[in-house]
């Protein structure tokens, strides 16, 4: 026990001498103490980089999958007038999605989301319960179709990354103007008429309403590239097959589409 007491006293003297400036440690204490070297510092597994300000969200657009059927309403509360319905699948059998425009809480604290609806009249929007939708997805792409110049341009983060001539609807079957979104990506329709790949949009033909699913306006290839650019379709947007394949590598589902 005397040995332990002496070691404790020596250690205390060392600590006290280190903490109190001007305090000296007796040499007898130092000689009787055992100094243990500290282990080397362990290198960190992760070193955070310099903080950076968040990037711009100006070119981001949101979409969400439809998880359950529900009514879309004129205003964000349960008693508002219905304007349409959510569908869990597209007319082509793919998962249904909607373009997200905003959100609001009602008086009871329930969250409502304003969405674009794939229906006539084109441009219809409505409020749906947030619980009816899945998690949000984001895209930084947008497609613009110029009906006068007969040209499609895809932008990514605000910069053009793709341009191509297009075919659009004939005067009696016009391609509708407005703001839409890419609703589905289709490969099972690959054929000479539709080309190797097609996209379904939320746009609907205002004249061919007796077509299946109400005349979905698609973006697809063609077996008559010599007709492009031109007004040659029933309302769909046609591209040369090489161009639709190039577009398919760049344009994800959920991309906003402006036709005008």
List keywords for this structure.
disordered N terminus; mainly beta; single chain; 260 residues; SH3 type barrels; L,D-transpeptidase catalytic domain-like; 8-stranded mixed beta sheet; 3 helices
Describe what this molecule looks like in 3D.
The chain is mainly β. It folds into two domains: 61-138, SH3 Domains (SH3 type barrels), CATH 2.30.30; 140-259, L,D-transpeptidase catalytic domain-like (Beta Barrel). The protein has three helices and 17 strands. It has helices at residues 2-19, 27-32, 241-248; strands at 61-65, 70-73, 82-86, 97-105, 111-116, 125-129, 137-139, 141-146, 151-156, 159-165, 167-169, 178-186, 198-204, 216-220, 230-233, 237-238, 256-259. The strands form four sheets. An eight-stranded mixed beta sheet has the order 10-9-8-17-12-13-14-16. The chain is globular, with a radius of gyration of 33 Å. 28% of the residues are buried. The model is unreliable at 1-25 (pLDDT under 50).
Structural class, from secondary structure content? mainly beta
For this structure, the CATH topology of the largest domain is: L,D-transpeptidase catalytic domain-like
Helix content: 10-25%
| Strand tally | 17
CATH architecture of the largest domain: Beta Barrel
Number of DSSP helical runs: 3
The rounded distance between the terminal residues' Cα atoms is 95 Å
Strands in their spatial order, largest beta sheet = 10-9-8-17-12-13-14-16
What ranges have pLDDT less than 50 throughout 5 or more consecutive residues? 1-25
Q: Secondary-structure element sequence?
A: HHEEEEEEEEEEEEEEEEHE
CATH classification, class level of the largest domain: Mainly Beta
Q: What is the CATH homology-level superfamily of the largest domain?
A: L,D-transpeptidase catalytic domain-like
Range of strand content: 25-35%
Rg calculated over all Cα atoms: 33 Å
Name the overall outline: globular
User: What is the residue-averaged pLDDT?
Assistant: 86
Most strands sheet: 8 strands, mixed
